[in-house]
Each structure stands twice: as C-alpha cells, then as structure tokens.
Amino acid sequence: MLNRRGVLAAGGIAAGVFGVPKLLVPAEGHENSTHGKHPVTYQESKSFSGPKPVVVPWARPMPVPPVLRPLVSTPKQEIYELSIDDTTAEILPGLQSPVLGFGGQFIGPTIRAKTGRKTLIMFRNNLKEGANVHLHGGHVPPEHDGHPKDIIAPGRTRLYLYPNTQQGTTLWYHDHSHGTEAQHVYLGLHGTYIIEDDSERGLGLPTGAYDVPIMLRDIHFDDSGNIVVFDDPAKRTTVLANGIPKPYFEVAARKYRFRLVNTANQRLFKLKLTGDKFTHIGSDGGLFGESKVAAELTLSSAERADVVIDFSKYPVGSKVVLTDDVAGEILRFDVVRRASDSSRVPAVLRPLPALPLSTVDREIDLAFLFKPNQRPDGLINGKVFDMDRVDITVKRGATETWLIKSSDPVGVKHNFHLHLVQFRVLERNGGPPLPSDLGLKDTVPIMGGETVKLQATFTGYTGRYVYHCHFLEHSWIGMMAQMEIVP
C-alpha cells in the first residue's frame, strides 16, 4: 500500500506516486475526466504473450524524426496538418507495441519554425477519447496553449496558432489533456518543435543534417513485452533515444549540434560522454551568453540541453557512448567517415536579456498530502488543482520573483514548469544557481527541502495559464495551479 512510509522508503520518491494501480484515480477536481479509460482498455485488448524480446545493444540505428512539411508556406506563416493516432511502434526488436503518436509516429515529427513567421497547425484527434496539444516553452495566447480544459473531442479538429515571437530555441509539443496527460505522453504523444532565427544562423553553428534532436525517455515493459502504463517509475529501466533502446548513430568526424530533450514522465538524467565532454550552448529558452564546457548534463523531465560534440578528434571507427548515472549506456555514436566542416562554436553566443526590477514576491510550495491507505494528493500551496479556481493574479508586463520550494522530506523529487514565459534562476538554496539552472528556463528540478528563486517577466498575453510539477504523475494527481494574467 502506498503511504508516507512507503514513499520515503522508495529513496527519494524513486517510486513516485505509482505504488498500487488501484489507487490511481484522479485527484479531486478530476472526477469528470476520461482518466484511465482509453489507455487501460487499449493495453489490455492488445496484449502480448510469450517471452519478451531481448534488446541487443547497438543493433539498431537511432532514427531522426522527420521534419513535418507544411501544406502552405508564405513569408508570414506556415500551415500544417497533424493527426493524433492510435498506432504501433517497434520499440523492442521484432515486436509492434500499441502506442499513441502524432502523425502515426511514436516520436512525433519535428516542426521547424522561424522567428517572426507564424505557425498554424490543424490537429485531428483520431483517438477514442479527448486529447490536446501544449507547446512546451512556447510564448502563445491562452487559447492556443493547450490548457487542460481545452480538449479536442474524438473525431474533431482544433487549430493552434503559434506566433513564434521568441528567439531561436528548442521546444517540444505534447498532450496536456485534463486527467490523461501522464498516460498520453507516456504512450507517445510528444515531438520536437524548433524555432530558428537569423541572428542564431549567423553564428555558424552546425546545421542541416548535423543539427539533430534527441528525445530521451524511459519505459517499462512486462515479461511479455507489453508497455506497462500504471506502474512504479523505478521499474522504467529501459531508456529510449528517439524511441529505440540502446541504438547507435553514425556520425562524420566533424561537429554536430544535438538538441537533447528529456521527455520522460518522471526521471532525472545525469548524462556523460565516455572520454569526452560536451560544449553546452543553450538551455530551455535558447542559447547561453557564452558556450561552456561540461563534463555532465543534468536534465529533469521536460528540460532541454543544446550541445555540440566535436567528433573530428576521433579516427574513423571510433565509438563514443552517451551514458546516464543510473541507466548506464544509452546511445553510441559511431564515427564512420571524414567530412569537411565549416561550422564553429563561438565563445560568445548571444547576450541574455537584462533582468528588470522585480516588484512582486511570491512563494510556491510543492508537496504531497499523504492519506491512510490511499494514494497521496499532489498539492501546490496546500491545494489540489481545480481548473475553475484562479490561484494567483499577475499583472501583464510585471516582473516577479518566485521562491519555489518543496516542503516534502529531503530526497523527494519534483520539478517546476511555468507556462507562457521563460524565467531566470537567481538562487538555489540561498546560494548561486547550478550549471543546469543557467540561461533562460521554463522548467527546473527541485528536491524535497530545497528552494529555487526565479524571476520572470509576464509579457504579451492576458488570460489563464497553469504552472505545475512536470513529473506528470505528480501534476496528474493535483500538483498544478492556475494563474490569470490581467491587463
């Protein structure tokens, strides 16, 4: 039974809030959602029997998600169409697992946008239940943000408008539907959204085939190869790179730009390269002011890291492996040829904007409420999410300082994601930010007992947006709140 003692014994919520499937009912305020109905029947009706296929390391190539082609392209906008589907994917070798996917793909197609040119996407929901789409990190009007209440009904379509007024950066899009976001994202509703701008192109960073998004996540299969949806996250021991466990990726002996995205529902990666280091050039909201050499990258769920790896120092035939402290080897880069390379990584990239004067201070507390013989509730400032309640009101254009804290015991893991705007981390635990906190951010990890001070300026739009823990099983049971931006 999942209780306070069981959670603490899991060693820092390694088991999250997923200890006993029968306790996984919606949090208060979620009762009218379609939570759980589709994924459960979906899995049970398409289950496998027999031994689980064996993953042989480095036997399959890492796919690069295709770039979605627009239906219409003009100097001012690009128009796309994309479906939300029941589909299958060969995650384990030789086995077609039932999954969900944008465009019928387990890893959705990459969308490449341009600063100053609008993107319009017509999403058609082909599922048997409601779904929606959130552009994570996007500066968009509230009606296009994928608010949990804004559901695309089965068989219906919805048009999303993304103004792309932001600087170049790596975002991602995923489901955010009320009560089903955790299952939908876990089963595959996610893809990369890249914004490019002229000033970034002028820096000479690797482009084209040498600019590669890599979506990292974990997953749990049972002994027959079925995807386990309602589970203990500590059992999600299979790590995927663009949907494949332990793939290889062939590279030329030159520089590559990799856009790393942690799409796991509830995981923190600590990434390293065997015998090498990363050149870290950017974070959630775009490029750093200066490039940095990093021996390790820490990414909690939904965070991104923009890095360059220079393979020119390696002879053809070399192998460079991406590893995680817990999962071990994840992805192998195989140097297979020589190539010319005119790209570069400037020491100075793009100055970060100045920090305006903050006029409002707030405290945001993430915590569990443990109840005897029941699953815990996720709380923000002592309350379970209610989409009909506005928790804070923010003046448009205001600059505010938020102290994010977790009153849970030391070792309990959460993270914090703010919709609409990027922010800057000012302090962690009263001291300087960690290397992983630097740059423009929209998501930061926070452990039990920690504090993170951040500053954000709420420009652009008025309306209602949410902020929440982006461990999706935590937000799913209520660890989410709502702000309203007012004129």
Write the CATH architecture name of the largest domain.
Answer: Sandwich
CATH topology of the largest domain: Immunoglobulin-like
CATH H-level superfamily of the largest domain: Cupredoxins -  blue copper proteins
Please state the average pLDDT score: 91
Q: What distance lies between the first and last C-alpha atoms, to the nearest angstrom?
A: 48 Å
- Tally the structural domains: 3
Explain the overall architecture.
The chain is mainly beta and 487 residues long. The protein has three domains: 4-32 and 353-486, Cupredoxins -  blue copper proteins (Immunoglobulin-like, Sandwich); 37-50 and 60-198, Cupredoxins -  blue copper proteins (Immunoglobulin-like); 208-338, Immunoglobulin-like, CATH 2.60.40. 6% of the residues lie in helices and 40% in strands. The protein has five helices and 31 strands. A seven-stranded mixed beta sheet has the order 12-11-10-14-19-16-17, with no helix packed on it. Strands 1, 2, 3, 5 and 7 form a five-stranded mixed beta sheet that branches. The protein is globular and about 55 Å long.
List keywords for this structure.
3 domains; Immunoglobulin-like; mainly beta; disordered N terminus; 6% helix; single chain; globular; five-stranded mixed beta sheet; seven-stranded mixed beta sheet; 487 residues
Task: Give the SSE layout.
Layout: H1 4-9, H2 37-45, E1 72-73, E2 77-89, E3 97-102, E4 111-114, E5 118-125, E6 134-136, E7 157-162, E8 169-174, H3 181-186, E9 190-196, H4 198-201, E10 211-219, E11 238-241, E12 244-245, E13 248-253, E14 255-262, E15 268-273, E16 278-283, E17 286-294, E18 297-300, E19 304-310, E20 319-324, E21 328-338, E22 360-369, E23 377-380, E24 392-395, E25 399-406, E26 413-418, E27 423-428, E28 443-447, E29 451-457, E30 463-468, H5 472-476, E31 480-486
Parallel strand pairs: 2-5, 4-9, 10-14, 13-21, 22-25, 24-31
Antiparallel strand pairs: 1-2, 2-3, 5-7, 6-8, 8-9, 10-11, 11-12, 14-19, 15-18, 15-20, 16-17, 16-19, 20-21, 22-23, 25-29, 26-28, 26-30, 27-29, 30-31
